[in-house]
Every structure is written in structure tokens, then in C-alpha cells.
Amino acid sequence: MEYVESLLDLIGNTPLVRLARSIDGVDGGEGGDTPGPLLLAKVEYLNPGGSVKDRIASRMIEAAEASGELQPGGTIVEPTSGNTGVGLAMVAQQKGYHCVFVCPDKVSEDKRNVLKAYGAEVVVCPTAVPPEHPDSYYNVSDRLASQPGAWKPDQYSNPHNPRSHYEETGPEIWRQTDGRITHFVCGMGTGGTISGVGRYLKEQNPDILVIGADPAGSVYSGGTGRPYLVEGVGEDFWPETYDRTVADRVIEVSDADSFAFTRRLAREEAMLVGGSSGMAAFAAAQVTRELAGTPEGENAVIVVLLPDSGRGYLTKVFNDDWLAQYGFTTGQPQASRTVGEV
Ligand code: PMP
């Protein structure tokens, strides 16, 4: 018989899938045997909770169990409504912990319901109050986290976030490419993924280039935190989990290009992924095109990490009316021209 004891045993070891169709004007790299850059996607939505964040959720919880910060039957409190919440809720359910997620009232009901479906509790705070107000998002989560038995993972400062990528995601990519990876492309939210994977890869081969993809406006690409619509990436502050020495280059990507490329990945590669994946893949396609036809490009193996599934964005990125409201095109077919223009 072939089975695992728990869904948690299926976290990680996600596959690399070649992206070929959506890279205009680049051939070659066939199976890595013919000259030409080879672009490979690390497909993180195949984790059991649907995103790369399953990895940090299980690692942060295991570390807190080992240190005694999280006691049997304890409560996990985190201000998140996104992928980290799903990962934590899934791991907590399997390990018998209670979860309380604090989120602002602007978070969609669908997202809250996903967390509740795993048995988590969701506390909704009003957006329209100042941070010092007792009902503010910040104050409520601090108050809940200071209760006896409560533990707050804090993905923005927890060293086990980047460490999970240093010890698992990075080695997987190195092994899967037989050590032939030359470029790693990744978006940055907490910065945990790029910092952990990037550090591991550079320790194996210092010539590997680590390239961040960032929404225009975010601090990582020199912005001030100006709003952008791509979710899960970009920041208006520098998180502790981001290693500022790891990226050799950061490519700024507009919302329009991120969304158009996200749509192309579904239509041309059959990959239904979120906007941050489209953003990272857009940057990786740019790197691939830069390398095509150059001597360096002949042996280039570019890996781009795609963090989550497009299922959570059906009413946004995959909704034509939503895109049109912001003046964005759907990426079909006329928007393909935006790809060559960066
Ligand atoms: N994409 C999505 C959809 C995410 O939720 C996150 C995490 N915030 C990221 C990318 C970025 O990953 P990291 O926090 O490791 O930088």
C-alpha cells in the first residue's frame, strides 16, 4: 500500500516544471541538452495547503514545540489572513493546537472562511480606527498573543521562516537541477524565501545570481511603499527576515505586467497561479530573454519560484471586469506585447 500518515508529510518536494510557451522568442534549452536558457518553475501551489507558506508554518511550529514556547493544546495567534494562515491552520489542526487569526475587516469573507474551514477562529478588527485604538488590528493581536498558552509565530521576524528555505527549498532546487542552476528568481514579502534559498544556493556556488522580483512602489525596489495591487509581495518596511545582502539584482514589475503574465501562465502553460507568481515569472522571462543568444545563456538554468495558486484570486486577476476597472488588459492576446517592452 502506498500512503502517508498525514497531509503534513506532503509538504515540500514540489516539482520543477519547464516554462517554454510563455517566453516569447526564446527556443532551446530543450531538457537542458541543447544550447539556450532553460526556464524552470518551482510550483509551490502543489503543497497541501496550496502555497509555499506550508513550509514555514510547519517549521515555525516544530521549532516552537522544541523550545517549549508552544505547549500541547496551546493557541497560535497570528495577524494574517493569507497563505501563512492557511499553512498554520492546517498544521495546527493536525497537531491539536487552536488557532486565532486576526485580520482587518477589508479581508474578504472567502479568505476568512478558508481559515474557519480548518477549525481556526478569525477575529475581525475595524480598519477605520487608529493603531492606538484598543480594537485596532495591532492591539487586538498583541492582547490575544499575551494570553496564557498563546504563541505568536510572527513570520516577519521568525528566523525559522528563512531557515526552512535554507534547509529545504534551497537544497531541493540544487538537487533537482543537478547543481546546474545559474539564476534564481523570486518575489519578496517577508523575504524569507529569497533569503533562505539564495543563501543556500550561493554557498553551493557563489556564481549563482539571485534576482528579486518586486512590485513597483515597494521598498525592495527602491519605492516608498506606494500602493500596488499584487498580493503577498512587496513591503513598505524592511522585515527582519529579509537578508539585504542576498539579491544581486531586483527587477521592478508593474501590476499590469504581473497580471497579464499571470493570465498567460494559465492560458499558455496551464498553470493557475496567483499574481505574485505572474510577477516573478514575468521577471524570469525578462532574464531568460536577456540571456538568449549569449554565450552565458547557452548553459543558463533559471529557476523561478511560483508561491501560490490562482484559486484565491478568481474574482480579481482572473476577472476581466476587475482588471478593466484598473485599466489592465487580460494578457490575451494583445497584452503579450507588454512582455517585450520592459
Ligand atoms: N507570494 C505570495 C502569494 C505570498 O503570500 C508570499 C508571502 N507573503 C510571497 C509571495 C512572498 O514570500 P516571502 O514572504 O517568503 O518573501
UniProtKB/TrEMBL annotation:
Q: Is Lyase one of the keywords?
A: yes
Q: Which GO terms describe its cellular component?
A: cytoplasm
Q: Give the UniProt keywords, A-Z.
A: CBS domain, Lyase, Pyridoxal phosphate
In the record, biological process GO terms are: cysteine biosynthetic process from serine; cysteine biosynthetic process via cystathionine
What is the reaction catalyzed?
A: L-homocysteine + L-serine = L,L-cystathionine + H2O
Query: Which EC numbers characterise this protein's activity in its record?
Result: 4.2.1.22
Q: What is the required cofactor set for this protein?
A: pyridoxal 5'-phosphate
Instruction: Copy the pathway line from the protein's UniProt record.
Output: Amino-acid biosynthesis; L-cysteine biosynthesis; L-cysteine from L-homocysteine and L-serine: step 1/2
Q: Under the GO molecular function aspect, what terms does this record hold?
A: cystathionine beta-synthase activity; transferase activity, transferring alkyl or aryl (other than methyl) groups
Q: Organism's domain of life?
A: Bacteria
Q: Where is this region: Disordered?
A: 148-168
Q: What class of enzyme is it?
A: lyase
Which family does the record claim for this protein?
Answer: Belongs to the cysteine synthase/cystathionine beta-synthase family.
What protein am I looking at? Cystathionine beta-synthase
Q: What is the covered span of the full protein?
A: 1 to 342 of 469
